Amino acid sequence: MKPRPRVVAIDLFCGAGGLSKGLQDAGITVVAGIDVDPACKYPFESNIDAAFVQEDVRNVTADHLNALWRRAPIRLLAGCAPCQPFSPYRRGVDTSREEQWPLLAEFGRLVRETRPELVTMENVPRIGSTVVFAEFVTGLRGEGYKVSWKSCYGPDYGVPQNRRRLVLLASMLGELHVPDGALRGGPYKTVRQTIGKLPPLRPGATDPNDVLHKCRVLTEINLKRIQASRPGGTWADWPRELRAPCHRRRKGSTFRNVYARMEWDKPAPTITTLAHNFGTGRFGHPSQDRSISLREAAMLQGFPREYRFVKPNETVRLSHIGRLIGNAVPPPLAKAVGDAILLHAAIRKVTLGRKVLIS
């Protein structure tokens, strides 16, 4: 096997490390992750074994990044700017004044100031139709990058959930295209294949051998509701007395992907920051009368079972860890991107004005 060019990445908006994990699995060296949220420090450092820099990206400079890259032969700037302003779950809400809106522009600023050989960005598909994204792409092309982007369907890449994400790749080395998934068209990885061997739990219980295999307590009425639910069904299957008042009204009758069970032999629905909550989506366990656990949510997001999110003996808070999991880039999708980057770098074999070191 020929040695691969050494690609060194910095992960902006790194979160708990989903993007970095996938890039590492592909063979890319991740030297640092940057995020404003201190909760990301432990999962990033303990799983990625790279430096975590707690900083607002608006305060990050070219000197900061260059000090982290040092004299890396091929530099990759990667990241997933917070996607809440562009999320399809924000139906009808004007998000243009939200603080997170300009963060993609800050990503673009750092690209202009450092001119890394490679750039990758991941976000929700809706961002592709926004002015801020168009400006980001125009800026990259103006700097001489070849740019490719498209909406990627998670199951095509081995992610066991029906998640779509926009992936962008940009290169100074030549044409680089966002890869198709190796499983395109199926058969797809299922809920059963992903979480089917985890120990059973009662509502509100925690596995004594895995503090992240913990699920939410159900109220008496929600316990009755999940008992009346079938995999792939909706709350319309329930007796009328169990239905929420909003679902009895005409306006709420169309929202049927809440208070529902997953199906064993299909991919899961999109894992959100509230995937531990039965009432916020199709997050009921396929056969046990409970919502899915944090560990199950993480595995359906594509994290390995052993991925660490909390320090030993630290209290596990459902909303806290659920946010880290739901906001993460699915590692299998990131690995496919990393594989494409390394293949691209190996084919080009350019020096970029200095000797390219081979790992």
**What characterizes the major β-sheet?**
7 strands, mixed
Mean pLDDT: 90
Which percent band covers the strand fraction? 5-15%
Give the radius of gyration: 21 Å
Jot down its keywords.
single chain; 359 residues; alpha/beta; Rossmann fold; DNA Methylase, Chain A, domain 2; 2 domains; seven-stranded mixed β-sheet; two-stranded antiparallel ribbon; 11 helices; 28% helix; elongated; disordered C terminus
Summarize the structure in words.
The protein has 359 residues and is an alpha/beta fold. Helix content is 28%, strand content 14%. The chain has 2 domains: 7-187 and 329-348, Rossmann fold; 191-326, DNA Methylase, subunit A, domain 2 (DNA Methylase, Chain A, domain 2), CATH 3.90.120.10. The chain has helices spanning 18-26, 41-48, 62-69, 103-114, 131-142, 191-195, 220-227, 245-248, 294-300, 318-326, 331-348; strands at residues 7-12, 29-35, 51-54, 74-79, 118-123, 146-153, 164-171, 206-207, 210-214. The longest helix has 18 residues, at 331-348.
Outline the fold blueprint.
Layout: E1 7-12, H1 18-26, E2 29-35, H2 41-48, E3 51-54, H3 62-69, E4 74-79, H4 103-114, E5 118-123, H5 131-142, E6 146-153, E7 164-171, H6 191-195, E8 206-207, E9 210-214, H7 220-227, H8 245-248, H9 294-300, H10 318-326, H11 331-348
Parallel strand pairs: 1-2, 1-4, 2-3, 4-5
Antiparallel strand pairs: 5-7, 6-7, 8-9
Entry summary:
The protein has 359 residues and is of the alpha/beta class.
